[in-house]
Design goal:
three-stranded antiparallel beta sheet; seven-stranded antiparallel beta sheet; 36% helix; 11 helices
């Protein structure tokens, strides 16, 4: 895979992420968002309740990641004097009632999950002065599956299987509570192990999770457009059809494919191109064979990536096969 040329922001010299398209420099955007907040007598723009956003040596907020609605920062819990991951509404969107309502749903769904392979939610709150929603979660020290692959290259099959078993355990626990993830991808699978050790998996950002039994909630989640990450989303997500845990199984299949090969199974520069590749029924199996993936694991991935949800294994069957 050819390396992409990097560009720097002409204002702050930060490295620009090409995946953000024309959105501009995220550091400048965040600074602009902070500058637009009103003066607060007791709480600064860097403080949310008892949580203070950590800053790097250069004074820039220590950002851990961002999604469609929120930005996650490293922060300090002043009450318990411990580091946490703090997710807040993107400053450019915090005025939207629809976004805030969805964010509230995210936090409450995630807070109800208690499993060793799911990052724990500690607290949910609202910034009184600005109305911004935020929640503090367990800070997982390590790197995402995406970061690991981009740093070291494709991962061997046995390690990928160990990762897969733990992710399936997390999805099973969520399913028992009537929840699905909806945005499972390599960037939401944290590897907390040290270099060379067995991977300890934490699934993070159940931010797009929803109660699968709540049909009204389903309409709110889908009526305004596609929800998820296109390269790892299921066909039913593109179609805005009803989704269940088998959608997460599809996303996990695409995630494992990326871990094994460093590529996504359905290439495309747009949602339409990716969707067309999915519906074609073609899978670049040669990528897996070239990576030395065993035939039984190839067969399992093919079933996980079936176009029709009914053709995919459920979490119980998937756990047994793994």
């Amino acid at each position: 895979m050819p390396a992409q040329a990097q560009a720097n922001c002409q204002v702050c010299d930060s490295t620009l992420d090409s995946s953000l398209g024309d959105l501009g420099c995220p550091v400048c955007l965040f600074r602009t968002g902070l500058s637009e907040l009103p003066e607060i007598e007791h709480e600064s723009a860097h403080q949310f309740g008892s949580y203070i956003v950590a800053q790097r040596a250069d004074g820039i907020p220590d950002e851990l990641g961002r999604g469609s609605m929120g930005i996650t920062f490293r922060a300090i819990d002043r009450t318990l004097n411990r580091p946490v991951a703090l997710k807040i509404i993107d400053p450019s969107q915090h005025g939207s009632d629809r976004v805030r309502e969805r964010f509230m749903r995210e936090a409450r769904a995630a807070a109800g999950l208690d499993h060793p392979n799911i990052a724990t939610i500690h607290h949910f709150g609202i910034h009184e002065a600005t109305g911004q929603y935020f929640y503090a979660m367990e800070l997982v020290e390590g790197e995402t599956l995406e970061e690991r692959v981009r740093r070291t290259g494709p991962i061997d099959s046995q390690t990928v299987l160990r990762i897969a078993r733990q992710v399936v355990a997390a999805l099973t626990a969520a399913e028992k509570r009537g929840l699905i993830h909806r945005d499972l991808k390599p960037g939401n699978v944290m590897l907390a192990s040290k270099e060379g050790g067995a991977p300890e998996v934490k699934v993070i950002d159940f931010g797009l999770a929803k109660a699968v039994t709540d049909e009204g909630d389903l309409m709110v989640m889908t009526r305004d457009g596609f929800v998820g990450s296109p390269a790892f989303a299921s066909p039913e997500q593109f179609a805005k059809a009803r989704v269940d845990v088998r959608s997460d199984v599809f996303s996990l299949g695409a995630t494992l494919w990326f871990a094994l090969t460093g590529r996504t199974p359905f290439p495309g520069q747009s949602i339409e191109e990716i969707q067309a590749e999915q519906l074609s029924g073609r899978l670049p199996i040669q990528q897996l064979k070239a990576a030395g993936v065993p035939g039984r694991l190839i067969s399992l991935l093919k079933s996980m990536l079936a176009v029709e949800p009914a053709a995919r294994p459920g979490t119980r069957g998937l756990a047994e096969q793994l």
